[in-house]
Design brief:
By secondary structure, this protein is mostly helical. It contains 20 helices and six strands. Strands 1, 2, 3, 4, 5 and 6 form a six-stranded parallel sheet that branches. Helix 2 runs antiparallel to helix 6. The structure holds flavin-adenine dinucleotide. Flavin-adenine dinucleotide binds next to helix 9, helix 11, helix 15 and helix 17.
Length: about 475
């Protein structure tokens, strides 16, 4: 009698059961499948992202009827050990394209091979895997719009038709998903986090269906309005692979809203492609002059400014509302992300990576590729960056995209008595907002200071030297 094949499905950024090619392959031929998540202590911390992950794992475990095996440790040792314990011939994964994940998977593959087993990557967190869309000469795109055209022309597969139905899950003894939640919550302490949404595949699908029915048609008009729920709110679901972009793309038609939404999905794919080709861009400016020759502020004054930015106490309401939304919910609206990032770099004259690090530690959708590229776009130093001299005015941006001040009052209780758009300029009504902080800088002055620094950087970079203040 032949033995039933047994395989391991190693879940990482694909915490779902439907439209998951790696799972379809693992379960082929009626094989028994051991569902594994490796809790790598280096990646599990008290952050909101880890909190979200813990909830997502619990949701997956529920879908699996409690069969999800959680093992703590370094995947390079844990995965081969679990495969051996299970008597599995292969370990199945969706490929990871970020720098750490690539190295880890290469090491795991080597260790499995040495033991007579295989690591089988199939599928990725993207509609088109990073590195696949190139110019005709094989070089990568550096500008989004031509990338988008080539990405659209390349096309993507239909959703994989599989679901977890019929899979013969095999539970091994070990820790459960709840162990991740327990460890994260213990480390996070009593700090409340009100705005964390439901996690998991079923929550992701429900949110997508709700957005498709109620938000997609007006997405193009509303997506820049933080006062309206005009965006899909799917970023954390996508970050953890609770839903695949292919599932979304398959349901988009040619309407304005759908086209605008497809373009945003393509931004995520473009930035993953940029990181794939330029792994160092996770932490360093693609335009290296911004790291070597741009004068940044340092010292106690700069430290105090950074602290005020982090706490949402700059005195600029649109910036402060965004930063407090981040603290409360682990998420910020895209328009506001651009404005707070611009403020840090061009009004406070601090390096973008300081803000990127703060974001990564606090965003529930924190994604190395999108975060680093979003920051570098704003700072003017990435591929296809916004020109440095395009400097967001935090007040007029707020007035334009939150015309009645509703977004501000939601996160800044000090402004509750300032009606309508008056909330954007509390300094004009000091008696109605006595507890709101004074502006820490004057935007008009700092804007000129930023342009001055740009000139200094160009001169210093051209002469190969360090920045010298004029
Ligand atoms: C400074 C800065 C940092 C950012 N950091 C992250 C991050 O760590 N993780 C992250 O997922 N997004 C990041 N973004 C992009 C964007 O702000 C979020 O994806 C978006 O706000 C998520 O909300 P949503 O799901 O409602 O978006 P929707 O408007 O509904 O868009 C749908 C999906 O498209 C993708 N998307 C939309 N806009 C962008 C964009 N500009 N860049 C890349 N993908 C996009 C996201 O996956 C998003 O979920 C950052 C942007 C900036 C300016």
């Amino acid at each position: 009698m032949t033995r039933t094949p047994r395989r391991v499905m190693w879940f990482r950024r694909d915490l779902r059961l439907t439209d998951l090619p790696a799972l379809a392959e693992a379960a082929d031929d009626g094989a028994e499948v051991v569902p594994l998540f490796v809790a790598d202590p280096r990646l599990i911390d008290p952050s909101v992202r880890s909190r979200y992950l813990a909830r997502s794992l619990s949701a997956l475990d529920q879908q699996l009827g409690g069969a999800l095996l959680v093992r703590w440790g370094d995947p390079r040792q844990v995965v081969p050990a679990v495969a051996a314990e299970a008597g599995a011939t292969s370990v199945h994964i969706s490929a990871d394209f970020a720098p750490y994940g690539r190295q880890r998977d290469e090491a795991v593959a080597r260790a499995l091979t040495a033991d007579g087993r295989t690591l089988v990557p199939l599928g990725s967190p993207y509609a088109i895997a990073p590195g696949r869309v190139t110019k005709s000469d094989g070089t990568p795109y550096r500008v989004y719009t031509p990338f988008y055209r080539a990405w659209s022309a390349h096309g993507w597969r239909d959703p994989a038709g599989n679901s977890g139905d019929g899979v013969r899950w095999r539970a091994l003894p070990g820790d459960k998903a709840a162990s991740v939640a327990a460890r994260v919550e213990a480390a996070a302490g009593p700090e409340p986090l009100d705005g964390l949404p439901a996690a998991g595949e079923l929550a992701a699908l429900a949110r997508w269906r709700d957005f498709r029915t109620r938000g997609l048609a007006d997405y193009n008009e509303n997506r820049n309005r933080p006062d309206l729920s005009g965006t899909s709110g799917l970023s954390a679901h996508l970050r953890f692979g609770e839903i695949h972009p292919r599932t979304l793309l398959a349901e988009l038609d040619d309407s304005n809203g759908a086209e605008a939404y497809r373009r945003e999905i393509a931004f995520r794919e473009f930035y993953a492609d940029v990181l794939w080709h330029h792994p160092h861009s996770a932490r360093a400016s693609l335009d290296s002059r911004y790291d070597t020759a741009m004068p940044h502020d340092t010292g106690p004054h700069a430290d105090a400014a950074f602290e005020a930015w982090c706490a949402g106490r700059t005195g600029y309401p649109f910036v402060d509302a965004g930063m407090r939304q981040l603290l409360a919910e682990g998420w910020i609206h895209n328009r506001v992300r651009m404005v707070v990032a611009s403020f840090l770099v061009k009004d406070l004259h601090l390096p973008w990576w300081l803000g990127a690090r703060w974001f990564m530690a606090r965003l529930r959708d924190g994604d190395l590729a999108s975060n680093a590229a979003g920051w570098q776009w704003t700072a003017g130093c990435g591929t296809d960056a916004s020109p440095y001299h395009r400097i967001f005015n935090p007040t007029s941006q707020g007035q334009k995209f939150d015309p009645d001040g509703d977004y501000l009052r939601r996160y800044l209780p000090e402004l509750r008595d300032l009606p309508g758009r008056a909330a954007h300029e509390p300094w004009l009504h000091p008696l109605l907002a006595p507890d709101y902080p004074e502006r820490i800088v004057d935007h008009a002055v700092e804007r000129l200071g930023a342009l001055d620094r740009l000139r200094i950087m160009k001169v210093a970079a051209a002469s190969g030297g360090r920045p010298v203040r004029s």
